[in-house]
Design a protein that fits this description.
Oligomer: single chain
Number of helices: 9
CATH topology of the largest domain: Arc Repressor Mutant, subunit A
Shape: elongated
Distance between the termini: 41 Å
Pfam families: BldD-like_C, HTH_31
Protein name: Transcriptional Regulator BldD
CATH architecture of the largest domain: Orthogonal Bundle
CATH class of the largest domain: Mainly Alpha
GO molecular function: DNA binding
Radius of gyration: 23 Å
GO biological process, one term: negative regulation of DNA-templated transcription
InterPro entries: BldD-like_C_sf (IPR038099), BldD_C (IPR037664), Cro/C1-type_HTH (IPR001387), Lambda_DNA-bd_dom_sf (IPR010982)
């Protein structure tokens, strides 16, 4: 197949890109023909299939359009990038459960119940600390009707989160 100068992609990179395209398509429960139908013929099954196999180079413009069609950020389709393109992992979010026990129930009740649920699911009852994910902090922010950064400041002021948690939240909001 003829490729214009400047459109070269290594075959290994094209295969990795294709694997990501296929994974997104199958996660959405679409066959190649389903993509063609859903896009009303804009994306031909044979073309998408050739992108997925790495047989055909995809331009940046077409990749951006395909990402838009699938409703995902372009970087999710690029090989060698972690989800979100993070270069280094953000600091861990670690709740100090001993300090949490001393926060008044009317303030910390939702957090105490959430932490107890996580401990139960993990079978982790050391009672001293509990690591949580960014998603947990976002969920807690919804429960407390605050932004993650405002909730983080509140938890730091209670002594429940270490001040390093600010970096994790700042990393998330970039």
């Amino acid at each position: 197949m003829f490729q214009r100068p400047g459109s070269y992609m290594s075959s290994e990179y094209a295969k990795q890109l294709g694997a990501k395209l296929r994974a997104i398509r199958t996660q959405q429960g679409l066959s190649l023909h389903g993509v063609e139908e859903k896009s009303q013929g804009r994306w031909k099954a044979v073309v998408v299939g050739s992108y997925e196999r790495g047989d055909r180079a995809v331009t940046v413009q077409r990749l951006a359009e395909l990402a838009d069609f699938y409703g995902v950020p372009v970087q999710e389709l690029l090989p060698g990038t972690a989800p979100g393109g993070a270069a280094e992992p953000p600091p861990k979010l670690v709740l100090d459960l001993e300090r949490l026990a001393h926060v008044p129930q009317e303030k910390a009740g939702p957090l105490q119940r959430y932490a107890a649920t996580i401990q139960s699911q993990r079978g982790d009852y050391n009672g001293k600390v509990l690591s949580i994910r960014q998603d947990d902090l976002r969920t807690l922010a919804v429960i407390y009707d605050q932004s993650p950064s405002v909730l983080t400041e509140q938890l730091i002021s209670w002594g429940v989160l270490d001040a390093d948690a600010r970096r994790a939240v700042a990393h998330e909001e970039v």
